[in-house]
């Protein structure tokens, strides 16, 4: 879908790249782009993600060449050279990543040549990520590709080390919490987990990445290019788990699949699964009264990326007994992956006899037209969807990008604990109006 | 080599094409600059003698662009659609601005609803073949989906460089749509001074929306107001105008297209942010003979006095104004006196846009506070008087003209003893340095007029009374700068061009 988009639900390749780099501790992006990209990306990707803020060197502190007319006419290479040198002098970072935006891409600066002049320590790499070259998801892939090709070196395999891919920082608003929960459950199997992004994940985690035994891709498509590249470059096999695992059944399945691939003792897995499952139902046992009292077996419409479309819908239908009305997927899913996404959602029908209708749509105006024909009690979507939820008299919960009416810090919906949080939030959206 | 030659010729063509279709940028029109570091007195002198050097930074941090500020100007106009003729990312500043928009509506006692925008989503292919067909589609879709009163077209770096002819598209599609199409040239690379965006947005409004003035309204005053002016500020202004028998036409933020059109019928224009209204107020005078007050922001006691007296002079209501001022003083000044005792001598740093930076200092003096330094986002003749007045009140101080650039601010704050930081966009960095902060605009609070002065003082007092968060945050986080940076001069990366 390369047509016009009303109120897009992702940003451009540059924004995706920038905030992917910010999600690596002490990695410093250097924007080689127009002056406004920094503020726009701050509002458009960073703050729009549950009001998450600039952190270490994000927001308006990000180094940027700010290309004005002079550079558009005469080129920006000299400006970039000076900017890289001075960034290293002023900003304390472990890795510097030059990200070229639209204007740099169009005027044809030879960025690779300039970056090559900065050899050695600290490392400087570059990513061609002009905004028009893709969206936030592409930006994520471009950064990993650059890290693999320009920065990572092969190393000895580390037993039990796994990398997590497919959760795109800030584009998945709950990325921090989701990654933390995935790490927690996998660590219970005795694994060592590189989430690669988030708290404590800096260049040391990335340097270890080539030593992993397995890459786990938590998405039906995002992160797969990265996984293939890591396989080709460092011989790391990968496992594709279709979507974000939410709830008992899917997280159990994740642990079982990872366990099989890494030959983990079945008994050990079963023990973890049973204790986690017991814990989830300890809480679900306590929410059952509210569910019966208010008759909260809800019908729901969902507007989200394919990760949540699969993971959240499966959980809500198969474990909570909710009734899906419509599932609109907004991440510009590549045509070659759409069949896979649909097949995964069909398993819900196979398991339950209930068939959620699926649309792939990026344009908010058209998304709302679909919603108008598919009334549901609950609307799971972005904060942009609050108005249509109001018109349809649906309860609304922000689960997908952008979210500006909730504050999201370490909250996550993945895994066992995430399912408990999700139930709290959905039921909270119903009773908070009282 | 061929590519480079092509680029230079292409660039010059683009420049010419854009320049014949809109206004000169503020650097050229009124000599605005975004780069200075030093003492205020010296900057004022250099500006006066017109020998302020055209400087540049050899290290830069990110900033805002013309397209984003044009968006800020027009996005909240009711019943309109903004089309971003750009790759998908440029339109996303709206995700943040939509927060302002929704809050603004709630505070105006309307249900919150989304602003409306469409991205033409320019892709790599469009950069080769042009994006004009998509722009056409976007205009027609906007009209079909929402039948808006007006459709704003905002250009971007990409649409500018590839040379799409947006005015021609607008003209060719206009007969097919009901909405007035308003093309706005706001390519991000065009100007270093994002305030140019206000001029270009208002240029579009004047050229494409207001076709004839219509009957004069003798009591109508244009209050030219950006989205950073909160509803409580507007109420304060409306109250003052009512006391003078005048009516406010608050535009363009949250206004209707009809209100924009009515701006040509007003009896006067009054700015509450001179930087913002600089071009619009003057052009309304040139085109429609509407007098304006433009050289003071009504923030603080003496500035508000001055603002009211200028308004009174236009309407021949000098005596009435003096009565209003006397009454307001009687109510507010005793309360200010009490506040002054608590705030006396506290050291303040301000960071903000030109108007706030230039007009808040006198209020600080009225509150008994001590100014130690200012970051202003740009500088030109409009802030000369305000800074001059501040030097008289406080003695010389550090001035930093910067389109954000928080590294310079961090360096300054590391050297100065500051009790309270006043600002918005760069406040978070001061907080991380352990300095309590308070905003200089916010849709939830009052800043303008007499009651604004009081509210502002109380807010500062609140921030100083418990610096717990700034203290704890600074102990547990660090700014990204090397220690060696703090040993250098804060303006070490500024050089003459």
SSE layout and pairing:
The complex is a heterodimer of chains A (about 425) and B (about 500).
Chain A: E1 5-6, H1 13-22, E2 27-32, H2 37-46, H3 69-74, H4 77-90, E3 95-100, H5 102-107, H6 111-116, E4 123-128, H7 136-150, E5 161-165, H8 175-188, E6 192-194, H9 203-208, E7 214-218, H10 224-234, E8 238-241, H11 247-261, H12 266-293, E9 299-304, H13 306-319, E10 323-329, H14 335-352, E11 357-360, H15 364-372, E12 378-381, H16 386-391, E13 395-398, H17 415-431
Parallel strand pairs in A: 2-3, 3-4, 5-6, 5-7, 7-8, 9-10, 9-12, 10-11, 12-13
Chain B: H1 2-21, H2 26-30, E1 36-39, H3 40-48, E2 55-57, H4 66-74, E3 80-85, H5 93-107, E4 117-119, H6 124-129, H7 132-146, E5 150-155, H8 157-162, H9 166-173, E6 180-184, H10 196-209, E7 220-225, H11 231-243, E8 247-252, H12 257-262, E9 268-271, H13 274-288, E10 292-293, H14 301-315, H15 318-343, E11 347-352, H16 354-366, E12 370-376, H17 384-394, E13 398-401, H18 406-415, E14 420-422, H19 427-432, E15 437-438, H20 449-465, H21 468-476, H22 483-487, E16 494-496
Parallel strand pairs in B: 3-4, 3-5, 5-6, 7-8, 7-9, 9-10, 11-12, 11-14, 12-13, 14-15
Antiparallel strand pairs in B: 1-13, 2-16
Helix pairs in contact in B: 3-17, 4-10, 7-9, 10-13, 14-15, 15-20, 16-17
């Amino acid at each position: 879908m390369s047509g016009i988009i009303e109120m897009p639900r992702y940003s451009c390749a540059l924004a995706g790249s920038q905030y992917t780099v910010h999600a690596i501790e002490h990695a410093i992006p250097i924007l080689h782009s127009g002056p406004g990209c920094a503020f726009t990306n701050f509002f458009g990707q960073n703050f729009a993600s549950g009001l998450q803020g600039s952190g270490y060197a994000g927001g308006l502190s990000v180094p940027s060449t700010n290309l004005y007319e002079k550079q558009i006419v005469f080129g920006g290479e000299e400006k970039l050279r000076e900017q890289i040198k001075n960034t290293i002098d002023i900003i304390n970072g472990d890795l510097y990543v030059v990200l070229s935006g639209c204007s740099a891409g169009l005027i044809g600066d030879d960025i690779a040549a300039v970056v090559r002049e900065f050899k050695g320590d600290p490392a400087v790499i570059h990513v061609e990520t002009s905004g028009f070259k893709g969206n936030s998801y592409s930006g994520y892939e471009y950064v990993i590709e650059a890290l693999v090709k320009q920065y990572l070196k092969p190393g000895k395999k580390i037993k039990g080390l796994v990398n997590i891919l497919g959760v795109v920082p800030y584009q998945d608003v709950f990325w921090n919490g989701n990654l933390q929960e995935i790490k927690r459950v996998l660590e219970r199997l005795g694994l060592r987990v590189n989430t690669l992004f988030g708290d404590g994940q800096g260049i040391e985690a990335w340097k270890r990445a080539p030593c992993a035994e397995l890459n786990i891709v938590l998405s039906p498509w995002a992160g797969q290019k990265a996984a293939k590249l890591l396989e080709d470059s460092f011989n790391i096999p990968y496992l594709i788990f279709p979507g974000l695992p939410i709830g008992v059944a899917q997280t159990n399945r994740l642990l079982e699949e990872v366990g099989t691939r890494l030959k983990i003792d079945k008994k050990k897995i079963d023990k973890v699964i049973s204790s986690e499952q017991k814990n989830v139902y300890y809480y679900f046992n306590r929410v059952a009264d509210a569910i019966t009292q208010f008759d909260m077996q809800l019908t729901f419409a969902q507007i989200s990326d394919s990760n949540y479309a699969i993971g959240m819908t499966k959980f809500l239908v198969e474990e909570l007994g909710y009734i899906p009305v419509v599932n609109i997927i907004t991440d510009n899913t590549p045509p070659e992956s759409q069949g896979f996404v649909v097949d995964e959602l069909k398993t819900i029908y196979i398991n339950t006899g209930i068939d959620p209708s699926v649309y792939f749509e990026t344009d908010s105006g058209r998304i709302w037209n679909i919603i108008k024909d598919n009334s549901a009690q609950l609307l799971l979507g972005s904060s942009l969807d609050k108005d249509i939820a109001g018109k349809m008299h649906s309860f609304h919960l922000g689960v997908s990008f952008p979210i500006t009416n909730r504050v999201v810090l370490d909250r996550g919906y993945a895994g066992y604990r995430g399912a408990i949080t999700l139930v709290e939030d959905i039921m909270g959206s119903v009773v908070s109006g009282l | 080599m061929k590519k480079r030659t092509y680029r230079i010729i292409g660039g010059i063509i683009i420049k010419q094409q854009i320049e014949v279709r809109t206004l000169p940028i503020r650097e050229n029109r009124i000599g605005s600059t975004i780069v200075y570091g030093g003492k205020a007195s010296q900057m004022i002198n250099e500006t006066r003698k017109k020998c302020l050097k055209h400087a540049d930074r050899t290290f830069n941090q990110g900033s805002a662009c013309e397209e984003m500020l044009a968006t800020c100007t027009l996005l909240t106009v009711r019943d309109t659609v903004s089309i971003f003729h750009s790759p998908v990312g440029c339109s996303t500043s709206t995700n943040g601005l939509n927060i302002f928009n929704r809050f603004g509506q709630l505070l105006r006692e309307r249900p919150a609803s989304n602003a409306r925008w469409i991205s033409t989503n320019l892709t790599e292919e469009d950069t080769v073949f042009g994006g004009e067909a998509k722009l056409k589609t976007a205009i027609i879709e906007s009209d079909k989906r929402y039948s808006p009163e007006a459709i704003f077209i905002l250009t971007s770096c990409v649409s500018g460089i590839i040379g799409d002819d947006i005015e021609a598209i607008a003209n060719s599609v206009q007969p097919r749509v009901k909405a007035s199409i308003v093309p706005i040239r706001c390519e991000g690379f065009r100007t270093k001074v994002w305030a140019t965006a206000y001029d270009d947005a208002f240029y579009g409004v004047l050229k494409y929306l207001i076709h004839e003035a219509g009957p004069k309204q003798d009591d109508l005053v244009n209050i030219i107001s950006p989205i950073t002016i909160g509803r409580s500020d507007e109420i304060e202004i409306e109250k003052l105008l009512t006391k003078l028998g005048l009516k406010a036409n608050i535009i363009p933020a949250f206004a209707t297209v009809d209100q924009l059109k009515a701006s040509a019928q007003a009896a006067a224009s009054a700015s509450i942010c001179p930087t913002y209204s600089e071009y619009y107020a003057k052009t309304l005078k040139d085109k429609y003979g509407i007098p304006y007050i433009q050289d003071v922001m009504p923030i603080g006691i003496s500035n508000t006095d001055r603002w009211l007296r200028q308004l009174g002079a236009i309407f021949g209501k000098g005596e009435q104004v003096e009565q209003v001022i006397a009454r307001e003083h009687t109510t507010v000044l005793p309360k200010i006196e009490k506040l002054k005792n608590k705030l006396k001598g506290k050291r303040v740093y301000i960071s903000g846009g030109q108007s706030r930076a230039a007009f808040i200092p006198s209020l600080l003096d009225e509150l008994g506070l001590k100014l130690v330094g200012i970051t202003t986002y740009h500088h030109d003749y409009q802030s000369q008087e305000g800074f001059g007045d501040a030097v008289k009140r406080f003695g010389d101080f550090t001035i930093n003209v910067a389109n954000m650039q928080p590294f310079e601010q961090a360096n300054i704050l590391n050297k100065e003893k500051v009790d309270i930081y006043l600002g918005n966009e760069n406040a978070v960095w001061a907080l991380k340095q352990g300095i309590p902060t308070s905003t200089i605009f916010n849709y939830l609070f009052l800043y303008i007029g007499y009651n604004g002065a009081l509210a502002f003082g109380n807010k500062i007092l609140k921030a100083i009374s418990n610096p717990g968060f700034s203290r704890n945050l600074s102990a547990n986080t660090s700014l990204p700068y090397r220690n060696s940076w703090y040993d250098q001069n804060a303006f070490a990366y500024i050089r003459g061009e």
